[in-house]
Q: What sequence folds into this?
């Protein structure tokens, strides 16, 4: 157990992040999960039986001090860091011409600044293990949508992934952008309902994230776009 790999997942108390955490724990990893809600994190840990290999850390993915603290707590408890998953993010589900700008600042900071802060805070530890960075993007970061502010943040994540790869590949660190289509998660709660048609499950998407983390040494899978069958755009 002391030599097993360690992953840190932001926004991991529910949805995709929680599914990734469960799969990694089942595969023998040790896992740190962060989130803003202490109660949600406590509930997630209790649901899993408070395993020894799980550390939960309350913090805001868009606050550098919180991200640094999560990395430091991980290293203190587990002694290493092999992978980070920048999963924290949300959508205001509105448009640039008709939406409410009051929600945009927090969305941009969480979705764009958050992954950059995680990379900056973890890179020294990842150099030591020649580890991996996984950024959870979106199909909306590859396909334009009318007025889509959320999509613009995910276009930024698409660019961040490749810009990061071009630097950290010299350090022996891999970078994978996982861009899902529609996934059945709490992401849609603010929208008011699930979108029509078939949706991926969080576990189906987690399969691909765990697969990317588990690639052989020296292999760097860079961009994976995953849609449910039936999603045309």
A:
């Amino acid at each position: 157990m002391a030599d097993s790999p360690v992953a840190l997942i932001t926004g991991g108390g529910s949805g995709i992040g929680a599914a990734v955490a469960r799969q990694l724990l089942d595969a023998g990893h040790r896992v740190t999960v962060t989130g803003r809600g202490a109660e949600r994190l406590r509930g997630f840990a209790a649901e899993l039986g408070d395993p020894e290999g799980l550390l939960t850390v309350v913090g805001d993915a868009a606050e550098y001090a919180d991200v640094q603290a999560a990395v430091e707590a991980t290293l203190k408890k587990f002694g290493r860091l092999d992978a980070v998953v920048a999963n924290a993010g949300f959508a205001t589900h509105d448009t640039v011409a008709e939406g409410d700008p009051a929600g945009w600042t927090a969305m941009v900071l969480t979705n764009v600044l958050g992954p950059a802060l995680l990379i900056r805070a973890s890179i020294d530890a990842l150099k030591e293990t020649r580890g991996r960075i996984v950024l959870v993007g979106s199909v909306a970061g590859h396909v334009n949508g009318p007025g889509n502010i959320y999509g613009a943040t995910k276009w930024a994540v698409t660019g961040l992934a490749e810009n990061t790869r071009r630097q950290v590949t010299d350090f022996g660190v891999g970078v994978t952008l996982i861009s899902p289509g529609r996934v059945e998660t709490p992401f849609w709660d603010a929208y008011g309902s699930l979108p029509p048609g078939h949706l991926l499950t969080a576990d189906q998407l987690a399969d691909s994230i765990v697969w990317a983390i588990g690639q052989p040494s020296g292999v760097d899978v860079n961009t994976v776009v995953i849609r449910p069958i039936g999603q045309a755009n």
Remarks:
- The domain at 6-226 is CATH 3.40.50.720 (Rossmann fold).
- The chain has one domain: 6-226.
- The first helix runs from residue 15 to 26.
